[in-house]
Specification:
globular; 12 helices; mainly alpha; 289 residues
Length: 289
């Protein structure tokens, strides 16, 4: 229950951060894409700094969640970040939510429930041998290189989607490294954590993921980026859990409801990402009767 609670808190923080960062990225010139000047431009915007503060909160909550639960359980919960954020934003901003938004919330929630119940993930080991990390890191770097190289040859929503998937992969890697690092804390205390290479690799992967996400949001709309980010993070994290930590999920005919759950989540994410609260565009004023 602790891991689920902190996973939900992480999702709330990350979802809010994504919306704030998207709003900030809208003001960035196209000429600054994939350059460090993009970050310098964003640093001057309060809304982006607020999003970064939420990223820090999310990182702390995620560390607690991963330290107390399997990665295949914790990471998929993050798909609720967008619907939860929109519901909160609707209350705070006193904005009336449309029927389409509620349908999107229902689709994501039901899809997550179906997927998690069908997969029934079970935790494996808490740490990973260094020799196992080597092929995993090589495969991840190759995958990232292909995605980024392809993205740079495209533009608009296609680039945003590819960079969104690249950011998702980096976030999933960050989670796997973080879980392994936290296991050193349990085994050897603070000295063990501070001497673990996984801790510093977590920081590098996290910064890389953040950079890729900013470029994804700058290149394409939230509708193109968010589904790739949300589903990519969940699926790649599960893959890391299965291959690195020895976690298990149901297969066979259980794949049918699992895929149905993923389809519902994808549809829900697209619907919600079109919501004015997510895109940062103002809603039209109500008609005067």
């Amino acid at each position: 229950m602790i891991s689920v609670l902190f996973a939900v808190l992480t999702a709330l923080s990350n979802g809010s951060a994504s919306v704030l960062q998207r709003r900030a990225a809208l003001d960035v010139p196209d000429s600054e894409a994939m350059h460090l000047s993009l970050i310098r431009h964003l640093l001057r915007q309060k809304v982006w700094l607020a999003g970064i503060a939420l990223v820090v909160v999310a990182a702390i909550c995620q560390a607690v969640a991963l330290a107390t639960g399997p990665i295949a359980v914790v990471q998929p919960i993050f798909v609720i970040e967008l619907p939860a954020t929109l519901l909160i934003a609707g209350v705070v901003l006193r904005s009336r939510l449309s029927g389409a938004v509620w349908a999107g919330v229902a689709a994501v929630t039901v899809g997550l429930a179906i997927g998690m119940i069908s997969a029934s993930p079970v935790g494996g080991s808490e740490d990973v041998r260094d020799t196992v990390w080597i092929p995993a890191l090589v495969a991840t770097l190759v995958f990232e290189a292909v995605l980024i190289a392809t993205a740079l040859r495209t533009s608009g929503n296609t680039r945003g989607a590819l960079l969104g998937l690249s950011a998702a992969c980096a976030y999933a890697l960050t989670a796997a490294l973080m879980k392994d690092a936290m296991s050193r804390l349990d085994a050897d205390g603070v000295p063990g954590l501070l001497t673990a290479w996984q801790l510093y690799a977590t920081a590098v992967a996290g910064v890389g993921a953040l950079f890729l996400l900013q470029n994804a949001l700058q290149a394409g709309t939230l509708v193109a980026v968010q589904p790739m980010l949300t589903l990519g993070d969940a699926l790649i994290s599960v893959a890391y859990g299965l291959t690195l930590f020895g976690e298990t999920i149901r297969t066979g005919w259980w794949l049918v409801p699992e895929l149905a759950g993923l389809a519902l989540i994808a549809v829900g994410c697209v619907v919600l990402a079109r919501c004015p609260l997510a895109t940062g565009t103002p809603q039209p004023p109500p008609r005067v009767k």
